[in-house]
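Morning - S-adenosylmethionine inputs below, output right after.
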Amino acid sequence: MRDAFTTRLIDQATHAFRAAGAFAWHFARGKLGGDPAFAALLRDGLLPRPASGLRLLDLGSGQSLLCHWLHSARQCHDSGDWPTGWAPPPVLTAYTGVELMPTDVTRALAALHDHPVPATVLQGDICVTAFPDSDAVVILDVLHYVDYAAQDVVLRRVRDCLAPGGALLLRVGDAEAGWRFAVTNAVDLLVTFVRGHRLSRLYCRPLRAWVAALENLGFAVDVRPMSQGTPFANVLLSARRP
Ligand SMILES: C[S@@+](CC[C@H](N)C(=O)[O-])C[C@H]1O[C@@H](n2cnc3c(N)ncnc32)[C@H](O)[C@@H]1O
């Protein structure tokens, strides 16, 4: 059962999606309510809180839910509506999303119209789009869409665009997680097809290979399960640039 605070936060964070149409609004509510990553980012304080505010880069940003989620969280916090024991949320001062699918970009831009945080959504491929200087980069369920060589290039470019002490939050499936990974992979292929991608395969790695790839780039990596309440084999890698 969803607690009252999370319900209020979802209401606030999804309000702007009414301007993007019924599908966008229902999708936003379903995703923010059902995906454990969004609450974990806040509860566990996984994003840095630079004194000058957070410049966030969201790769494979979909509808750019994260921009609304973080800004609404900060508003709740500042009005005194914040769960005891949760880390204070960052102050979002710049948001850049990069998204391949034009329909998602259109919905994202419709909901970001008049948003108080300077926000940009670039329609393009994360493999070639230039990344702005950032304090945090979030990549949720995206990197396995591109081949292994391209993944390594993206991760290197992410490292290079991060400020010292900056964070990469990367959610991936663990290819060694048995039947849970098989479910993750099958659902992913179906969902990507429905969303208009025409991929013949996904490029997954065992968790230890993801960790090694990040450590080879100099990141300090922390791993936590991130598929609670779902049948998936997802893990969230929290990687800090020294
Ligand atoms: C599973 S969705 C996740 C969306 C978002 N990260 C979230 O958690 O709400 C994956 C997204 O990555 C996008 N995507 C896949 N490959 C991409 C690429 N090469 N460049 C940019 N976006 C990509 C898809 O279009 C889709 O919107």
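Note: The pocket of S-adenosylmethionine is lined by residues 31, 60-62, 65, 98-101, 104, 125-127, 140-142, 145-146 (CB under 6 Å).

O.
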